[in-house]
Structure formats: structure tokens, C-alpha cells
């Protein structure tokens, strides 16, 4: 896997918004029935890469999706591809330095789920990023709904591989891992080490013995998380992000009622990043001659 070192959601598909209403940049990708195996690297366009990807996803293209171009044009020739969680300024600059002009992101570029930009048109932070993308001819395409809709889910697959838990996955419910009896503390230490996480938030007893792990990367939302807990009956939930008045309060009440249910909050970015890293090994064979690299957008938080 090609990897450029940096200088420094989710398992459920969210409610989607009409692409045409999202931004001045947004253009709904159209499937052109290109052969999914590979395309010529000498004249490959952004739209051809998108079509190649969509040809592997059942039901694509979707009528409603946030997975649209945020900058660039469908017809521009691709000089290199970068996969990442966020098109941060650092990621954009590293892509430019690497000679790549197509960034595939999992999350929004302009600070809101649908990448609406009218409210930001006079904002200097937005304009700086927009100008940087425009000046260097960088296309940015969001790959969120489609990557989660891929079978297997691309994000979950990458996370499972990073955690080295693939052999423990329940075939009937890919979000459930059945481990040998392991203390919650050891599970947390393992997840932190494998996913590169500095700190987590926990509700539970570190000494608790756990076997059934419910893995919910990203931000599925409280109702979805609680419904998944009720269905899977796990010992511990590893999730990316929560609203504090939802899933944490459910877990706290469950424990007070005698259930041995624990919750570990990994953080949104770091809980899904391995899925965008895995995209490289999935996509590269389909695009021989075009370098596909992963640039981590990294965790922006300090812990004080």
C-alpha cells in the first residue's frame, strides 16, 4: 500500500440530501456503464474513476446522496489519487506536493454534512480552502454513502482488518465480534494501539470480562446505536461518536439495572480512518499506472 506520512460514519447510511441542492460545487455522479475492472491510466478522468467505483456498488448511482464533487470537474484528467477522511488544508498541500489532483474523502469538506457553501461565501477560512483547491485544480469527491453501501461495508472492513478481528466476525451480523473472554481494559488497550488512538471515554468496569463486541464506527446516531445494542446484546460497544444525552445515558441506565454493558467512545475520525486507508488496496488494482495513496487527516485534538 502506498502511504504518505503526514506532517503533523459510521456503519449506518445517514439521511441523504438531494445532491443538486447541496453546493455550488456539487454535481451528481452519473454511471456511464464503464467496465469496472480497470480504465486507461493515460486519459483517465475524474468521472471515469467515479464510474469505476460505482459499478461495484449495488443500486448505484443513488438518487439522493452526499457523495458528490465538492471541487474540480468530472472531465479533468487524473494525475494521482489520495484517499483520506477529510480534505484538510494539510492533506490538500501534501496531495499537491505528491502530484495528485483527485482527493477522495469520507467526510464533508466545507464544515457541514451536505457541504452547503452559501452561508460561507464571505468566510475567510472557507475562501482560503476554496482558492487553494481551485488554484491547483484539485477535484474532491466525497465517498461516504457509497462506501458504506458497498458489500462488505468498506469502512467496517478496514477497521476490522486494522483491529485484526476479521476471523471473529459474526457472519449473521458483521458489526458483532465474538472474542475469547477478554477484560474490557485489554480490549481498550488493543483498540487504542491498533487504531492509533491516544485516549478514549469509557462507561463500564475495566475489569469486566467481555466476549461480544459491537463495533459501530463513525456516528450512527443514538437511536441506531441503541437499536443495535438491543439486537446484538453485546458486552461492550465500541463506537466512534455519541450525543451525550443518548447512548451514554442508555448504557448508564442499563448498568444501573444490572446489565454488564460497557461503552467505549473511540472518536469519529480515528474509528473510521482505517476504512479509507483500506480503500487504497481496494482501488489501486483497478487503476494500474495511477498512484493511489492514503494521507491521514489525523486527529486534530490535544488532550490536556
Please provide a brief summary of the model.
The chain is 31% helix and 16% strand. With 304 residues, it is of the alpha/beta class. A six-stranded mixed beta sheet has the order 5-6-8-9-10-7, sandwiched between helices. A five-stranded mixed beta sheet has the order 1-4-3-2-11.
Overview of this structure, please?
With 304 residues, the protein is α/β, with parallel strands linked by helices. It folds into 2 domains: 19-149 and 272-294, 3-Layer(aba) Sandwich (Udp-n-acetylmuramoylalanyl-d-glutamate--2,6- Diaminopimelate Ligase, Chain: A, domain 1), CATH 3.40.1390; 155-266, NIF3 (NGG1p interacting factor 3)-like (Udp-n-acetylmuramoylalanyl-d-glutamate--2,6- Diaminopimelate Ligase, Chain: A, domain 1, 3-Layer(aba) Sandwich), CATH 3.40.1390. Helix content is 31%, strand content 16%. It is built from 9 helices and 11 strands. It has helices spanning 46-54, 89-97, 124-135, 145-149, 154-163, 184-195, 222-232, 247-256, 268-283; strands at residues 69-71, 81-84, 102-105, 139-142, 169-170, 173-183, 201-203, 209-216, 236-239, 262-265, 292-294. A 6-stranded mixed β-sheet has the order 5-6-8-9-10-7, sandwiched between helices. A 5-stranded mixed β-sheet has the order 1-4-3-2-11. Helix 5 crosses helix 9 (268-283). It is globular. It starts with 45 loop residues before the first helix and ends in a 10-residue tail after the last strand. 44% of the residues are buried. The model is unreliable at 1-37 (pLDDT under 50).
